[in-house]
Design a protein that fits this description.
heterodimer; A: Pyruvate-ferredoxin Oxidoreductase, domain 3; Rossmann fold; 3 domains; 7-stranded mixed β-sheet; about 20% strand; B: about 350 residues; alpha/beta; 3-stranded antiparallel β-sheet; about 30% helix
Chain lengths: ~625, ~350
């Protein structure tokens, strides 16, 4: 049968099923294939904290959303065009995200009385007209999967577990993507261990693809052309992987061994996983007994001359507080990557949030200033981690790198940098006993010298007690303490002289500027671009440097009538901006464990511009 | 900066002076810490080490001022975390000779978790635990080794929590060298420090240390001339456990239970005694448990000395193996990953 092939500019697909259904794998496979064909993309894995919640329940639903297109893609999509629902619970929890008239593909086999009850649905939505506003395709995925595996002597449990590949194959067909990449993946992942498992998965994947081809359910196939991204070599990358690679690249450029002390915590553990597989780079990873030991070991490693780093999420950062204070006092380089998640306390471990900003900037006893950076997109995690390491080493200071669950697990195409073109990170260890004083500072940066144990003649003691400003010996002198407090603050402020001036997307003057930081970048950019296309006087200012702020920030902010700060917290950057610049700043704060939607930001801007919001 | 007046070269013989920093020692006059410091400073020069390879790490408490008084690299950290900081130093540079000075509060209370995990990993780190059974720096609260009933500022009618036996804890945690010594027996303390220095792996030394301000005389029974011979038995590898002023008493095993016997009236002789074996972990636990029987002398010396690969060696080995398998890491290839595409 000849079908129409319709070209789309962009499309958002959401895969949803039980957390045991392999939706994350399905989504990431689809993503890799889409990426390799050159589309721009953004993903949002959205899964529960429970590893295998009881099958069929709504709290066990795991989702993966991908937005890809031939234009620039900034967000994983406010709503989806296509929803693949593997069971009633997935339908119940995700239907609200499907746009009116959107395509719904359901595994009709899963719509049993029991599953409908587990999902809390009365009646059967496949039959009662609930879905009349959508383009519904009922596919007997479970049965079709079982049929294709007949005669292979596989358990029904196993058969059930492969059905995600049927859905994947079908989506490949529907969106005109080849299955090759996933074939290769299956062969590599299962082929060596168990050829029967590989064979079964391949059969199901192909069956899904062929189902689209042979049945007449779908009258149209879709195509998305490659995006016109800047020339270069690209790969698809997740934020946590980018953070890990940023640290490795920085350590290599600095000529330092990389040491990561870490304790498993969602959603940051992938940084530990990634780095623990890079031993050929001399990377040492240490899974410590707790968050405190993780940062303390990293501090010890830095003291011994390595680039010490630790990765964590909010609750872990809280435990590292005292260690951070020690690192501030010892003035040693240290990179802390905080993959923020919903809080407070245990909060929403698998969901995203931006509420550790004030903890990062202020969360230590006494005066303990340090440098805070934030990544804007998954790929930007690389540059941010790299920059954090550069500053940490140059200024002999801890640097906190804020990412979040959405950035850490989300993915996008990344134009791969040339390793030899990355900025240099010069490191100079003290070696001369005649001139060495542990706290004698560089005039420009105020950094103290870095003296590695093992260097003859530089034996010295440092510690958490206040130190004499030159010798580093314990000092209780009142004026020395005053001097040291102010010097530590001044050192961090001077970093502002060493970072790029803040830029603005759009004009530097106008009616309204949206100030963002971190993962809201894409949503804000989409909202602002949409309004600018309508001729509105709106600009976007996105901060990577949160402590210290770029030195021209105040001046820039004064160029606008209104300042709007959207954040996935209850108003934290606002506090920093207001107290620093004494400007009226208003917030847009939605703390749902999900990225902000471009649409709602756009609406808020419009309200302000219309003057109806005060 | 503390003056390094004696920058060591391998040819130059180091002396005690090389290890004394220019900082005034600020422990209370009469504190047992002075002796511990002096014994360490006496032992260190004996080793052919380069002085610059020594690092002392500590947490918080009286004992943790130790690094300031040693003219070596030193890091005075935060409460309880010295083993974790020391672990990072050792992993980053296995060439360094890393020592931790800690106390019963620092090492067993707030830092108990780091202590046990550091010991089980068998990093080649030496831990000196100054045990004075009291919190000194905070002025006299009870510690995890204070004895039942002990009256302190925070237990005016007596301690009700059962104390840790540090040696048992270290054995249970998997330390590969566990020993006990006393501030007032300097020769023996030196010997134990020497053993720790020579040991390949984590060493844990509990040192009975008198706090003459807040818990004076806690160990008098074991340190004073009149009583010590009858209340202390020294462990020596391959030798029977003999004690007493006249060397006329000993320890024999009754099943798994150690019993004190006298050669003069029990019919037992030295041939019936328990013979110490440092390589026997089961025996070490039995000897550590002697503390629970007031009839038994307190065991001093090396309880166990085991040979196990160190953590940092295995870490280096994994790196070597990864490099021989995958080659030295190529940064550009790493950045590119498995799958790339090009836009012209």
């Amino acid at each position: 049968m000849q079908r129409e092939l319709k070209t789309l500019e962009d499309v958002t697909i959401r895969f949803a099923g039980d957390s045991g259904d392999g939706m994350q794998l399905t989504g990431s496979q689809f993503t890799n294939t889409v990426a390799a064909l050159g589309a721009d993309l953004s993903t949002l894995p959205d899964y529960p904290a429970e590893i295998r919640a009881p099958a069929g329940t709504t709290y066990g639903v795991s989702g993966f959303q991908i937005h890809f297109g031939s234009t620039e893609i900034h967000t994983p999509g406010d709503t989806c065009d296509v929803l693949v629902a593997m069971n009633p619970a997935a339908l119940a929890t995700n239907l609200k995200l499907l746009r009116d008239g959107g395509t719904l593909i359901v595994n009709e086999d899963a719509f049993t009385e029991k599953n409908l009850r587990l999902a809390g649905i009365h009646g059967n939505p496949l039959e009662d007209g609930t879905l009349s506003g959508y383009d519904v395709h009922r596919v007997a995925i479970t049965t079709l999967t079982a049929n294709v595996l007949q005669g292979m002597n596989l358990s029904s449990r196993f058969v059930d577990k492969t059905k995600n590949f049927f859905a994947l194959g079908l989506m490949y067909w529907l969106y005109n993507r080849p299955i090759d990449q996933s074939v290769k993946f299956i062969e590599e992942k299962f082929g060596k261990k168990d050829s029967q498992v590989a064979e079964a998965n391949l059969r199901v994947l192909r069956a899904g693809y062929n189902f689209g081809e042979t049945t007449e359910i779908f009258t149209t196939r879709y195509d998305v052309k490659p995006a016109k991204l800047p020339p270069g070599t690209y790969r698809n990358i997740m934020g946590n992987v980018a953070s890990a690679l940023g640290l490795v690249a920085a350590a290599q450029k600095a000529g330092l061994p990389l040491f990561l002390g870490s304790y498993p915590i969602t959603p940051a553990s992938d940084i530990l996983h990634e780095l623990s597989g890079l031993k050929q780079f001399g990377v040492k990873t240490f899974q410590a007994e707790d968050e405190i030991a993780a940062i303390c070991a990293a501090i010890g490693a830095s003291y011994a001359g390595a680039l010490g780093a630790t990765s964590t999420s909010g609750p872990g950062l809280a435990l590292k507080t005292e260690g951070l204070g020690l690192a501030v006092m010892l003035e040693l380089p240290l990179v802390v990557i905080d993959v923020q998640r919903g809080g407070p306390s245990t909060g929403l471990p698998t969901k995203t949030e931006q509420a550790d900003l004030l903890q990062a900037v202020h969360g230590r006893n006494s005066e303990a200033p340090l440098c805070v950076l934030a990544a804007a997109t998954p790929a930007d995690c690389f540059d941010t981690a790299y920059e954090a390491a550069r500053i940490a080493v140059k200024y002999m200071t801890p640097v906190i790198c804020l990412t979040d669950g959405y950035l850490g697990n989300g993915a996008e195409p990344w134009r791969i940098p040339r390793a030899d073109e990355l900025p240099e990170i010069p490191v100079r260890f003290a070696t001369d006993p005649a001139s060495f004083q542990p706290y004698a500072r560089d005039e420009k940066t105020l950094a103290r010298p870095w003296a590695k144990p093992g260097t003859p003649g530089l034996e010295h003691r440092i510690g958490g007690l206040e130190k004499d400003h030159i010798t580093g010996n314990i000092s209780y002198d009142p004026d020395n303490h005053d001097l040291m407090i102010k010097t530590r603050a001044e050192k961090i402020e001077r970093i502002a002289e060493d970072i790029p001036l803040q830029t603005v997307e759009g004009e530097e003057h106008g009616d309204l500027v949206v100030v963002g930081w971190g993962s809201t970048y894409g949503a804000i950019k989409s909202a602002v671009e949409s309004l600018r296309a309508q001729g509105r006087s709106v600009s976007h200012l996105h901060l990577r440097y949160l402590a210290p702020f770029p030195r021209n920030l105040g001046e820039l902010l004064h160029g606008f009538t209104h300042i709007l700060v959207p954040e996935i917290n209850n108003g934290q950057l606002i506090q920093l901006l207001r107290s620093r610049y004494l400007l009226p700043v208003r917030g847009f704060n939605r703390i749902r464990g999900l990225p902000l939607r471009a649409e709602e930001i756009e609406e808020t801007i419009e309200l302000i511009l219309r003057g109806s919001n005060g | 900066m503390a003056e390094s007046t004696h920058p060591a070269t391998p040819a130059e013989k180091l002396t005690i002076k090389d290890f004394q920093s220019d900082q005034d020692v600020r422990w209370c006059p009469g504190c047992g810490d002075y002796s511990i410091l002096a014994q360490v400073q006496r032992v260190f020069p004996e080793f052919a080490h380069k002085k610059e390879d020594y690092v002392a790490v500590s947490g918080i408490g009286c004992s943790s001022r130790f690094p300031y008084y040693m003219d070596i690299y030193g890091l005075h950290g935060i409460h309880g975390r010295a083993p974790a900081i020391a672990s990072g130093i050792k992993m980053a540079n296995p060439q360094l000779d890393v020592w931790v000075a800690t106390g019963d509060g620092d090492g067993l209370s707030i830092g108990g978790n780091h202590m046990i995990h550091t010991l089980r990993r068998n990093l080649n780190i030496k831990i000196l635990l100054f045990n004075n059974q009291i919190y000194g720096l905070t002025k006299g609260q009870y510690s995890p080794t204070s004895v039942l009933g002990q009256v302190t500022r925070s237990t005016p009618v007596g301690v009700i929590d059962t104390p840790f036996v540090p040696v048992s804890l270290a054995l249970g945690a998997g330390a590969t060298l566990v020993a006990r010594a006393m501030d007032r027996d300097p020769k023996h303390l030196q010997e134990v420090v020497r053993r720790a220095e020579q040991h390949h792996g984590s060493a844990f030394i509990e040192i009975y240390q008198n706090c003459n301000v807040f818990n004076d005389g806690a160990f008098l029974l074991f340190t004073e001339k009149e009583t010590r011979d009858d209340h202390v038995v020294y462990l020596e590898h391959g030798k029977p456990l003999v004690f007493g002023k006249q060397k006329d008493r000993g320890i024999r095993l009754d099943g798994f239970t150690p019993k004190a016997v006298s050669f003069t009236d029990s019919g037992y002789s030295v041939n019936d005694l328990l013979v110490h074996n440092e390589n026997d972990l089961t025996l070490a636990f039995i000897l550590a448990n002697m503390i629970h029987d007031p009839e038994l002398p307190r065991a001093m010396g090396v309880f166990v000395s085991l040979d196990r690969p160190t953590y940092e060696e295995q870490m280096e080995d994994q790196i070597r193996r990864a490099r021989s398998k995958k080659g030295q890491g190529d940064l550009q290839k790493l950045l590119e990953g498995d799958q790339t595409w090009t836009i012209a």
